[in-house]
Amino acid sequence: MAILRQPAPEFAFAMTAAPQFDAPKFEVVGIGNAIVDIIANSTDEFLARNKLAKGSMRLIDAAEAERLYAAMGPAIETSGGSCANTMAGIAALGGKAGYIGRVRDDQLGAVFTHDMRSGGVKFDTPAATAGPPTARSMILVTPDAQRTMNTYLGACVELQPADVSEDLAAAAKVLYIEGYLWDQPAAKDACRKAIKAAHQAGREVALTLSDSFCVERWREEFRALVRDHVDILFANESEIMALYQARDFETAAAHAEQDCAIAALTRSEKGSLVLRGRNNKADGKSEMHHIAAIAIGKLVDTTGAGDLYAAGFLAEYCRSGDLKRAGQLGSLCAGEVISHFGPRPQQDLKALAKARLGTA
Fold first, then answer.
1. Residue 166 contacts residue 18 (beta carbons within 8 Å)
2. Is residue 286 within 8 Å of residue 5, measured between CB atoms?
3. 34 contacts: CB under 8 Å, gap ≥ 6
4. pLDDT, tens only, 54-112
5. What is the biggest distance separating any 2 CA atoms in the chain, rounded to whole angstroms?
6. CB 164 within 8 A of CB 138
């Protein structure tokens, strides 16, 4: 059942008693930064020489993107972006997914569009005919499998409310929003438009916090979103600690249990904590599951781990509503994606889930 929240003024809309809603056409529709990932092996020395903080995500301008690209070693180029990776994972699991994001009518924009559609994700946002080129993220992977992301947002910075199809935002059981979008005022307004459309249609809204540095920039707004408008929160250990300015995970999780309707908190090799918090509108009762990490092979590259965890979680949540099984499928999908380079699955996720978890 969708968890309907009392809207704040910027999300306000008329409500009637016992509204009747159409059945969703998609499991999940996501809105995020449409980015082409450029992934290369690196060393700690390279990061230090270029003054890059290991494990961080930073935004760079066009000149820095060109400089860093020239300095990198051989790379793999693939369509990416956090939310897009999650939608591709849901489609790979057999779910119906849609995506809203802005690309330019250039070569990388065409590659991104083709990849999404060929992977089974509905992506119909018209390509921009002017402005910055399609975004790209240069991801440097060190031998310990940590990834350092250097992102030129390009066309992403011009995502507008006009790019959001209200019909598509309202057509899924869950609308999934990438926290990185909060860095751009117009993109933030686009998210608000999508949230309003989703809640008007009786849908649920999920938010991924994306990055601890992003949380530091928007902590108070994110906390208000989580309390008042978000039904499912995704965060890793550093992000949830940053959100609540907590010194340890346990303290942060206790805050999440009070604030959240549902939260899925990932902890790398420690697995994840999945909870139904006291802010759920069904009964206000909490539910908590400690989910073990699932190893598929040798750890190669952590790029996309959180994205594919969210894909597995949402696919199972939309199918069964079982939070424990959702966390287990999320863990399995994360385990698969970190066993190879790149943020998209290489194995058949449906077959893997059936073999390891008995998921249909």
1. no
2. no
3. 81, 84, 99, 101, 102, 103, 109, 112, 125, 134, 135, 155, 156
4. 988 888 998 898 899 889 988 887 778 899 999 999 999 999 999 999 999 998 898 89
5. 62
6. no
For residues 94 and 350, is the Cβ–Cβ distance under 8 A? yes
Report the Cα 69 to chain-centroid distance in Å: 25
Position 79, amino acid: S
Radius of gyration of the chain, Cα coordinates, nearest whole angstrom: 19
Distance in angstroms (rounded) separating the CA atoms of residues 32 and 181: 6
Tokens representing residue 110 in the block? 């065409």
HEC states along 119-170?
CCEEECCCCECCCCCCEEEEEEECCCCCEEEEEECHHHHHCCHHHCCHHHHC
Report the SS3 class of residue 64.
Answer: helix
Closest CA to 232 of 256, 254, 210, 262: 262
Distance between CA atoms of 358 and 27, rounded to whole angstroms? 20
Cβ count within 10 A of residue 214 = 22
- How many whole angstroms from its chain centre is CA 332? 17
Beta sheet of 76-80, edge-to-edge order: 57-59, 147-152, 135-141, 35-41, 76-80
Residue 209: CB atoms within 10 Å: 27
Q: Are strands 35-41 and 135-141 parallel, antiparallel or unpaired?
A: parallel
SS3 call for 317: helix
Q: Give me 184's structure tokens.
A: 């751009």
As a whole number, the mean pLDDT across the chain is 90
What pLDDT, in 10s, does the model give residues 180-229?
999 999 999 999 999 999 999 999 999 999 999 999 999 999 999 999 99
Vertex 103: Cα angle to 102 and 108 (nearest 5):
155
| Among 299, 291, 297, 307, residue whose Cα is nearest residue 347 | 297
- How is residue 264 written in tokens? 């899925």
**DSSP at 283:** T
Cα dihedral 322→323→325→326 (10° resolution): 110
Residue 278 structure tokens: 């006291």
- Interatomic CA distance for residues 207 and 211, integer angstroms: 12
Q: What whole-number distance in Å separates Cα of residue 169 and Cα of residue 42?
A: 39
Which domains does the chain possess? 25-33+81-128+156-357 (3.40.1190.20)
Backbone angles phi, psi at 306, to 5 degrees: -65, -35
